[in-house]
Amino acid sequence: MTMPTTGRRERKKAATRQKIADTALRLFLERGYDAVGIRDVAAEADVAVTTLFSHFASKEALVFEQDDTFEQRLTQAVTGRAPDEPLIPALRREVHALVRHCTAEGSAPLYRMIDGSPALREYEESMRLRHAESLAAALAADPGLPQSTTACRTIARFVIDAYALAREAADPDAAVDEIFQMVEAAWEATHPAQGA
What does the alpha-carbon distance between residue 188 and residue 170 come to, in Å, rounded to a whole number? Predict the structure, then answer.
């Protein structure tokens, strides 16, 4: 009897979170990021400011509401791959998918807003560092990938930077492929006998 209630409660929380995020993004794009305050978003989404903060830690987090999903997808590319699947192609495939999503038609205004705001650029950079650390931890925890902590952290940073650089490239798919040739070479240099 409590299972449906829990499911309903989680669905309601997820719907509220999405409503807040959608409202914030619409207001930011309409009025400009700096012109919209937290109270404006809460009022427009018809929630209390405390409710907004129970879902998002900061104003910047409203813009990057898919942050956790991004990080999970990258770590899942490591932990969820088949036992015989090489690491670098799995990461390349996931970065391709992430880049295609963020460069899809309609996402340009969001990234122009991010690029135009020092606060959002700083938040995005701290996010990238956190994602790199999570990815490095997933690499280090994989028993089939014997490597040093430095190698894990380096490859993880390369992968995160590949996403950022490809997103800004004129041909994002080609950029991912070009960057991953270098990532694969770096990975092979740390594992000469094992390869990718």
Answer: 28
- Report, in angstroms and rounded to the nearest whole number, the Rg of the chain calculated over CA atoms: 19
The phi and psi torsions of 147 (rounded to 5 degrees) equal -160, 165
Indicate the Cα dihedral angle 64, 65, 70, 75, nearest 10°: 120
Structure tokens at 18: 């999405």
67 Cα distance to chain centroid:
5
DSSP-derived letter for residue 48 is -
List of residues 6+ apart from 64 with CB closer than 8 A: 123, 124, 127
Amino acid (one-letter) located at 150: T
Distance CA 75, CA 24 (A): 28
State residue 6's pLDDT score.
65
Write down the mean pLDDT value for the chain: 86
CA dihedral defined by 148, 151, 156, 161, rounded to 10 degrees?
160
Question: What tens digit of pLDDT does each residue of 59-115 get?
Answer: 999 988 777 788 899 999 999 988 888 889 999 999 998 888 877 777 778 888 888
In angstroms, the Cα distances linking 84 to 62, 90, 184, 193 are 39, 11, 17, 16
Please name the residue that has the structure tokens 């404006």. 40
